[in-house]
Design goal:
The chain is an alpha/beta fold. The chain has 18 helices and 21 strands. The strands form four sheets. Strands 1, 2, 3, 4, 5, 18, 19, 20 and 21 form a nine-stranded mixed sheet that branches. Bound molecules: zinc ion. The site of zinc ion (ZN) has 5 residues, from loops.
Length: 553
Amino acid sequence: MNESDLVITNGRILDGCGNPWFRGDLAIQDGRIAAIGQPGSLQGRQTLDAADRYVAPGFIDIHTHSDLTLLVNRRAESAVRQGVTTHVVGNCGMSPAPISREHLQDMRTYWGEISAQPEVSWEWRTFHDYLEVLREGGTSINVASLAGHAALRLSVMGYADRVPTEAELSAMCSLLAEAMQAGAFGMSTGLVYPPGCFAGTQEIITLCKVAADYGGFYASHIRGERETILEAVAEAIHIGRAAGLPVQISHNAPKFGAPNDAHANLALVDAARRQGQDVTVDNDVHTDLAPALLHALPQRWQELPDERIIALLQEPEFRHQVREEIVLDRKPAFGPVGLLKHAQWQRITLLHAPQTPEVVGRSIAFLADQRRQEPFDVYFDLIVQNGSAAIAIFDYIDESNIRLLLQHPVVMVCSDGDALATYGFLNDPPPYSPCSYGEFPGVLERYVRDEPVLSLPEAIRKMTSFPAQRLGLFDRGRLLPGLWADVVIFDLERLHDRATNLFPHAYPFENYPHQYPQGIDFVFVNGSLVVEGENHTGTLPGQLLRHAAVKIR
Ligand SMILES: [Zn+2]
């Protein structure tokens, strides 16, 4: 028997396919799993005693927004310390490429402050060039990417709220073909955000046909996740059928205001699958999101500079109009706006408000009572006083729906977060993003160990082989000889997510600023050790993953 680089002994091996664990040795050689054998059967130049902990494939996070944070901090700290070894970027319609010179400023504004970081050079225009910038500097985790529909649209027609001309649509198709040739795994949309929300179904079908030509899939932040969630799921399924490609419905928990629980949208997915359509779902297990208060304004106002919006919100007429539009919600806005629409002011808790620090930790409902003011006026006043720096935690998802989604076999686990770090620009000020720090350990801690929502092998399957299958990555996501050695070793008893804050919120917030989880003891990416206990080794062994750029039809 040959000696390998490393043998992990004495572990409980979870293969990623949903099978119960078994005891065995796992050998790593040249970045790949060289062998798996009976306990004591394999020899290596080095041995790592797993001490009866679980040994599983590295987690694959199919829905992230790490497109630029990975350029700023290539160590992917908050991801890899959770045991995550692959991120999929370019979600919710937005990738940083392609981008035209003409609309570069729109793109920079979209991404906000991170756009001005020195590591974000914006020297790329094509999707290929962006991927090269990402690849050349290296990353600690593997990265796969989707081409964002909003980036295609922004490149060609900026924030125009209209149907594209034939020439514009064909220009978008060419940009997408270029992205697919460069290795994009498919196209994503964000149909509640500008400019994605300005696109009709037919535009997306036409583009999806291009992605389908290259064997890509369609990932969608659907057109409304509350009152219109079922129509929006149906639209995504229809797009997949019309264009002939698989569909991934992103972070598909019903948000406050949805008419039914998650059974209803899952029933549509099940029906499509029975008819032979490949539709799958991902979801994050957090009930909250912490956007700027400004982002609840109707989409057409969101692209205005702060000063302009602040000035407008001082006019009673404008306030009245905005309030009416929020309640009517004709072009469905993103999930958290449901809390304004349905007057759930006790579910909106202030997190940052530099000009009015006394409100931090208070809900809009509390402040309205205290000030004897209309909640909408309290909300607008905070924007006038703090601009886009006013940020609140919006608790807009019912945890019972999170459990329903976790238990359904077609739902995989995603974070919807990004790779962050507890130091540097990415923590200044600390963002509220529990999913970026605690998603995967949190699922295992709360929904596997502490409460029997799902079994350990099933949870691991939803984090590994299942997303790998969606991506067509058949050389990752499982523990089998010959596959890439993305491996995590964890202690289920010690596992602890130190980023999640359950609703209702106590102030100061229990797990904020966020910390890395406990109990993820070793993480290997392509055979190299990246996490050892509390330490990141600093290595950048991640690969830039490219979908086979082969035209299949
Ligand atoms: Zn989204």
